[in-house]
Amino acid sequence: MTDTKSTDDVTISREMSSSSSKTSSVEKEIVPVNRSIKKKKPNSVSKSLVGLCKIAAKHLPLVFGVYAMGYFNFSIAWILGIVGITAATDQWRKERNYRMSTARASAIYDDKDVIMARVSDLPSWVFFPDFDRAEWLNKILKQVWPNVGHYVRNIILESVQPGIRESLKAYKLGGFKMEKISLGTMPFRVGGVKVYDKNVSRNEIVMDMDICYAGDCDIRFSVKGLKGGIKDFQMSGMLRVVMKPLISQIPLFGGIQIFFLNSPSVDFNLIGVVDVLDMPGLNGILRRVIIEQIGAFLVLPNKLTFTLSDVVSPIAVKIPEPSGVLRVRVVEAKQLMKMDRVLGIGKSDPYAIVTVGSQEFRTKTIYNTVNPKWDFYCEFVVHEGRSQLCFLRIFDRDETTGDDDSLGKATVDIYSVAKVGKKDMWVTLEDVKSGMIHLELTWFSLMDDPVMLKMHAAETQSLGLSSALLIVYVDSATSLPSARTSSKPDPYVIVTAGNRSEQTSARMRTCDPTWEQALVFLVCNPESDDLYLKVMDQKTGGELGMEKITLVSLLTLPEMELSHQPLSLKNSGPESKLIVSIRLKVMVPGQPMEGDTILDTGDFATEPPSTPPPPPPPPSAETVKVKPDPKPDVPVGNDTQNSTPAPSAAASDTVSLSGISERTSSLDKSMSSSTNTLSVTKTSLDRESSIRRRQKGGLPPGVVSQVQLTLRYSSQRQRLIIVVHKVSQLPGGDQPDPPDPYVKLYLLPDRSTNSKRKTDIVKDTVNPVFDETFEYTVAPIDLPARELEVSVINRKGRFARSPLMCSCVVILGHHDLSQAVTQWFDLKPSE
Questions:
Q1: N or C: lower Cβ tally within 10 Å for the chain?
Q2: What is the pLDDT of residues 214-258, one digit of tens each?
Q3: For bias kind Polar residues, which ranges apply (predicted)?
């Protein structure tokens, strides 16, 4: 992964410039949004008879409700339930309003002291590298913000409003209409900017910006005639800007692409009559719809694209170039939390949601279990294989209230899968006390060779999965007929491939529309599937023309591509044409992505091989060359405990010294073959007897067991990632009943249940292999002072006491965790 401190990267850190305001005034309280509002004096009317009547009338419904419940002999449980729900709702609103006001202060004001006064209350996306380097960019945004507001208003009316209207119909909320859209006077702020010069094409510029918006926007709408609005709208996330292709004329690049790598964080408050939706369980409807529309507009695979030069074809800017396809198999989960408790017996009704960018899939719900088995497949088109993430969330289905409880979440770095081609892994769930999920992930590279289709299509087609990727670029149409004689049509195109349909946006009142939109499909069998293109009129719903293309015909074309092809439309005018470009790519499974470095998007951990070898022993003055033994070596002694990352497999093939006498006769031959020999110290000869004794079950004096760990810190996610690989040579190997070990972790000094992590139990072995991943949330400033306690416990017998076998403490401040460190740690036997 690219180091964020590399001199090759041009990093412009976050700007929050200091102002002349005094620190003492902001340490007491965050600056109010309206400083002119003064505390009002108590009104004397409140002491009058009218004031007393108002107070009585305000409390009358509550008193009457309590009286009615007593009169009709209602159980006291009803009163307690209503009071509990009211109190919980009120507390939830207070907490959210406080959190939003804190975030708004950090996004609006330039005063560094304002931010530092409440640093503990700020959201996770606020950080403080430098406060003055992005000042020029934020000043530009403030100057052009009115123009941005007009442009965004048109986009919302043309693209976002129709999507929200269609989505709300599923909830029986029709008649949605935007009435007022104003972004206000406060622009979004740029926190950090990073420009890449590695792993990018020479013909493009890639830039990431950490943005946050907490402005004074005023958005009004109506739903079924009910007036409502949105205030305190906040959004934060990582925005990527790609400028390509580079040209030799002003403005030096032909186009620009803008998109979010992953879904941004969105929050807002509702006002007006629809404020009744703004409560737990119900406000999720409108919130979910709005987030979906933002994703459909700006989150990969969707992009906001502009062509800036006439010398560049729009296809070069707007047609997508996916990195590959990620297939996720959600196999099962285990040890999930018990959310529904009846008579002391716990259960849950879990389901999982898998997300990459704006693409989302949901498994079926498995009822009454904490160990569900889904065996669910889903596939994602990945556009930025080096930067995108796969998110998994597990929920407990509550059919009574509809408010599903979280059972945990997990994050997978897609590039860690793309590098190896395929992964079968158990992932520990975050933000819960227990739970793991079993995933099988396969990376598919994209090729334009039809021969590869015949080689790999049979297996995937038998499962009903995809074997090819289809890109359809709808450019324009000419001479379309009018659906009505009185006016021109409002045409849009519906594209159908297999059982999936997508449509372009509509163009108003024209017979010669230009769309310039690209649609991406996953195809099961290109040899039998067809592509349907249908031009429709939005105003009347009538068909303006259609065309059918057999995908098998693309297999014979050069690079399986049809470029800028005018198609004659059936059931249309005599001169009606639809101009499209079509590309077909074959999905090749298990093909690793080329390159071994990635764009830096937060130092996310990648898992090492399941059983990485230990470091070789240090060289000495006298060495003997022998051929490496095919059996893996068992690490011994304290010399393996160091803070350097584990070397690659080719460089760390250590030597097992069993059978030295047989190798001595071929010593000269092994020395002549340097590529097949390794340097081994004479002291290693003395270790052979120790290894043999350990393999027989005895533990020689001065020799300890060892545990192999991988440690890594993700600065953007503020996560400490720990992979417990295996433990070598535990005591008890010579006993008739070997131990049942497992590993328990604590992040000191915290010894609570929230800090405890533990692996599964491995039966009857002194050399257990775990390969399990755990995560802790740790602030960067606290990481050097934290310690990781690793204990190996023997869980022999169902009701037996769990004796401590051995343990160690890892001081995190002694290791550079900006990159993954894989290492053996000595374990001290229990006393």
A1: C
A2: 888 888 888 877 788 888 888 888 899 999 999 998 889 999 999
A3: 653-664
pLDDT of the residue at 417: 92
pLDDT band at 330 (very low <50, low <70, confident <90, very high): very high
pLDDT at 803: 83
The tokens for 652 are: 């760390």
Query: 292 is written with which tokens?
Result: 């979906």
Question: Helices 49-71 and 76-108 meet at what angle, rounded to 10?
Answer: 130
Count of C-beta atoms within a 10 Å radius of residue 451? 9
What one-letter code names the amino acid at 74?
A: F
Q: How far apart are CA 655 and CA 427, in angstroms?
A: 32
CA distance 614 to 648: 10
Burial 90-128 (b: 16+ CB within 10 A, else e): eeeeeeeeeebbbbbbbbbbbbbbbbbbbeeebbebbee
Q: If we measure between CA atoms, which residue out of 693, 490, 522, 711 comes closest to residue 605?
A: 711
Q: Are 374 and 363 in contact (CB under 8 A)?
A: yes
Which two three-digit tokens encode residue 618? 């240090």
* pLDDT tens-digit map of 294-316: 888 889 888 889 899 888 888 88
End-to-end C-alpha distance for the chain, whole angstroms: 42
CA dihedral 522, 528, 531, 532 (to 10 degrees): -130
Tens-digit pLDDT profile for residues 357-406: 999 999 999 999 999 999 999 999 999 888 899 999 999 988 776 678 89
By the 8 A CB rule, do 551 and 439 touch? no
Residue 535 has, within 13 A of its CA and on its CB side, a CA count of 36
More confident site: 459 or 179: 179
Report the alpha-carbon distance of residue 428 to residue 408 in Å, rounded.
Answer: 9
Structure tokens at 421: 């081609």
Q: Which residue has the tokens 């949330």?
A: 777
Peptide bond just before 350 cis, omega within 30 deg: no
Q: For 565-603, write each residue's pLDDT tens digit.
A: 999 999 998 899 999 999 999 999 877 776 543 343 333
Closest CA to 617 of 684, 674, 695, 675: 684
pTM tops 0.85: no
* Helix runs in 195-335, H state only: 283-298, 314-318
Give the C-alpha separation, 743 to 791, whole Å.
6
DSSP state of 299: B
Smallest Cα–Cα separation from 134: which of 10, 5, 12, 4? Answer: 12
Mean pLDDT of 484-501: 90
* Alpha carbon 153 to its chain's center: 29
Query: Taking 70 as the threshold, does the pLDDT of residue 658 lie above it?
Result: no
Q: What is the DSSP string of 689-754?
A: HHHHHHHTT---TT--EEEEEEEEEETTTTEEEEEEEEEE--S-TTSSS---EEEEEEEET--STT
Buried/exposed 495-515: b ≥16 CB within 10 Å, e otherwise: bbbbeeeebbebbeeebebeb
What is the crossing angle of helices 283-298 and 161-169, to 10°?
A: 140
Q: Is 238 exposed, middle or buried (0-12, 13-18, 19+ CB in 10 A)?
A: buried
Contact 250, 263 (CB under 8 A): no
The values of phi and psi at residue 590, to 5°, are 65, 15
